[in-house]
Design goal:
heterodimer, A: 188 residues, mainly alpha, 93% helix, rod-shaped, B: 255 residues
């Protein structure tokens, strides 16, 4: 009986030992040494991250965000200034345009008046010149007729004296030639 | 042995002998501990290099770090906790980078082992998060935090006997457990998949007849490697955003 109990106890002890070894080698269960190193390494990383590694990164990121924000605000201010200047420029341009139109209209009316004055003066001058020219033409015509009369008289008297072989009274012939020239002139 | 192909037992895939310290000791340093240390050194170096540059225009490591911090701050902290949660940014950034880098060792040559495919890392992170959000709750609400957490305002009194146990289990038991198991199980599953296809490729390379399926297996291995990179990032994001949600829910009673 005692031997049987001893055999059973030994068998049970062997089973417990095998079960313990199996549990110890179970690949799913965590091992104490790996947990120790994982804990040490991670806690060290956490401490470093909190006090040494992350602050410069977040500080620089915040500085960049501030810079970007500042630049954006400056760009928005510049845009507002540009819009304001553009509206000022457009308003000035509209004023200048209406002023230019006024100046052009005034110049045009002044030009028209001046042109009318000039035309009137030119017309008067032309009339004067025309009258002078007509007078000159009339005088020239008179002179030409007198010269023509004299020449014709000389020729006619000379021809007649040559035909009759005696002197002819020039004064009496001159009246005839003048009458002839006058009639010839009236026929032209 | 499957179709003449021999796959290693799961212990061989995830258990690593100590490099120093006796087996079973609390300080034994193995491959997983080394990956954790590399995650610390890599994160520290990255942030140190990024923080050294004073240029307002980020590039290189600075660009990477700032993008990540910006992503965690705007995409996680402000979304789940609002501006009040900014003071918890260091913890969440540490979580994200630590998990991401230890996960990414899944696809790094000569390592090929995600640190979180062992339960220890996820368990520690989940326990720390659990302690952290309880501490935040006590800080913001005092001892009433525990009452507010398990008996939300507005619940009819008749339902309290049902709601209190559910909320207690949900808030204080299931949350850390689910955080740890989700991360661990996803990374272990990915690791097993990659090992399976790697072993398959190696074995098929020497097999005569079955070698015709080697290209398929190799393509699967390449595809899964890319997928695991995405999973590494995704799990880091999920763990971090859930930690933020839990911390945020502890800040106010109405949550």
């Amino acid at each position: 009986m005692l031997a049987l109990v001893r055999v059973l106890a030994e068998a049970a002890a062997t089973d417990v030992q095998q079960a313990t070894e199996t549990a110890a080698k179970n690949p799913i269960l965590p091992t104490i040494n790996e947990m120790f190193w994982a804990a040490v390494v991670f806690l060290l990383l956490w401490a470093l991250m909190k006090f040494v590694l992350l602050p410069p990164i977040t500080k620089l990121m915040a500085a960049r965000a501030d810079t970007v924000r500042g630049d954006l605000q400056a760009a928005e201010a510049a845009e507002a200034q540009r819009v304001s200047r553009l509206s000022d420029y457009e308003a000035g341009l509209a004023g200048a345009r209406s002023e230019a139109i006024g100046i052009i209209e005034q110049a045009r009316s002044e030009g028209d008046a001046e042109r009318r004055v000039q035309i009137t003066a030119a017309d008067a001058e032309v009339a004067t010149l025309r009258a002078d020219a007509a007078a000159e033409i009339a005088a020239a015509k008179v002179r030409a007729r007198a010269e023509l009369t004299s020449s014709i008289t000389d020729i006619a008297v000379g021809a007649a004296e040559a035909v009759v072989q005696k002197p002819i009274d020039r004064a009496s012939q001159t009246a005839l030639v003048e009458d002839y020239v006058s009639r010839s002139g009236s026929q032209n | 042995m499957i179709f003449g192909l021999e796959f290693p037992p799961i212990q061989n895939l995830v258990e690593w002998p100590n490099w120093f310290g006796p087996e079973g000791s609390w300080y034994g340093f193995n491959k997983i501990a080394f990956i954790n240390v590399i995650a610390l050194v890599a994160t520290t170096s990255l942030f140190f290099i990024a923080g050294r540059s004073k240029s307002l225009v980020p590039k290189g490591a600075k660009n990477l770090v700032e993008s990540a911090v910006d992503f965690i701050r705007d995409g996680i902290v402000l979304e789940t906790m609002g501006p009040e949660g900014i003071k918890y940014l260091p913890y969440l950034v540490s979580l994200f980078f630590f998990i991401l880098i230890t996960n990414i060792f899944e696809v790094i040559p000569f390592f090929h082992m995600p640190g979180n495919a062992r339960m220890a890392g996820p368990a520690v992170l989940a326990l720390l998060t659990w302690a952290y959000y309880i501490a935040v709750g006590i800080k913001h609400q005092g001892p009433k935090y525990f009452i507010n957490a398990i008996a939300p305002a507005g619940v009819p009194k008749a339902l309290l006997p049902l709601v209190i146990p559910i909320e207690f289990l949900s808030t204080f038991i299931v949350r850390p457990f689910s955080l740890a198991v989700r991360l661990f199980a996803n990374m272990l599953a990915g690791h097993i998949l990659l090992v399976t296809f790697s072993v398959l490729c190696i074995t098929l390379f020497t097999a005569s007849l079955l070698a015709i399926v080697l290209p398929l297996s190799f393509a699967m291995l390449v595809g899964l490697t890319g997928f695991e990179i995405m999973v590494a990032f995704l799990q880091a994001y999920i763990f971090t955003i859930l930690a933020a949600v839990y911390i945020g829910s502890s800040m106010h009673a109405e949550h």
